[in-house]
Amino acid sequence: MDRAVSDLSSLPSEGLTDEIGVDHESAVPLAASAARNRARQAGLPGAMPDQAAVVASELAGNLVKHATGGTVFVQLLPHGEGVEITAVDRGPGIPDLDRSLADGYTTATGSLGAGLGAVRRIASEFAIRTHPGSGTLVNARLTVPGAVRPTRWRTGSVCLPAQEERYCGDACAVAETGDSLTGLVVDGLGHGASAAEAARSALRSFRTAPDRPLDDVLASLHRALRHTRGAAAGVLRLHSDRAEYCGIGNVRAVVLSGGEIGHRMAGQPGIVGWNVPTPRTRTVALGPGAGVVLHSDGIESRWSHNPPTFLLRLPPPLLAAALAHRHRRIRDDATVLAVQAA
User: Fold this and answer.
1) Among 19, 24, 81, 119, whose Cα sits 20 to 30 Å from the Cα of 75?
2) Hey, what domains does the chain have and what are their CATH numbers?
3) What is the pTM of this model?
């Protein structure tokens, strides 16, 4: 059994994504503080928490000065080896990306002067995409020096509670299971602490043996949730040439291939922990570079109906952030997990 399992939302506050809406310059120090706190929580040494704050300040400052509808997401990395900061906007895009990435280049007065080039230099991993009319997305990851990170799979996730809720009834986890990657998205019924407890029970069950057949994983979740209010759950297993999906309730899986929607898969009717049919696993073939998105119903399902090619070609960390930013139902807990073979 592979023990490299990461709970992305296992506690009421830890594991959730910090969301900072950026519509005023006062949001800049909030983003910096969130990044510094998460970096310390991840155990980043020395000046790295302050570097994380610089990254968040630059990205939030860019949103204030150059974009509209901007958001900064901050969270721990899936395996706890660092922190990631993602900025998403609905701005005009960056007309000269190469120039903007030059270290020290900035067009904004009042900036720290570091610019996107220094963000890229500070980050252990960096990704940026921009498009006129679609805005700009930037992801910067800072990791513990010497941390061994999975390289076979690319993952991205966002997990957010409903507006004005302290607890999140959604959660997700990923595990490397031999030559495959297995992911879980769970949506506890309702909202608040009871829904969060159902989600945590599902995560505890999942991490005991994530390498089992997917129908066995769901059967185990069903037993574990019998004394909770229940949940919807979807389990995905990604191989280099195929994807397997098994779900109960309103967790959906969408296969992306070549900049197009390949397959849409919904869960069987039922409530995990209460009444479920015999779980069935569906398998679909994957071409090179294909990926899968797994999400709760806090993400509008219509996102996959005629989406722009720009969205479908985003790498997993940016795709997850884009879907949470543009297609989230704010009155519901929302989780999206994007995975792809590297």
Assistant:
1) 24
2) 5-143 (3.30.565.10), 153-341 (3.60.40.10)
3) 0.91
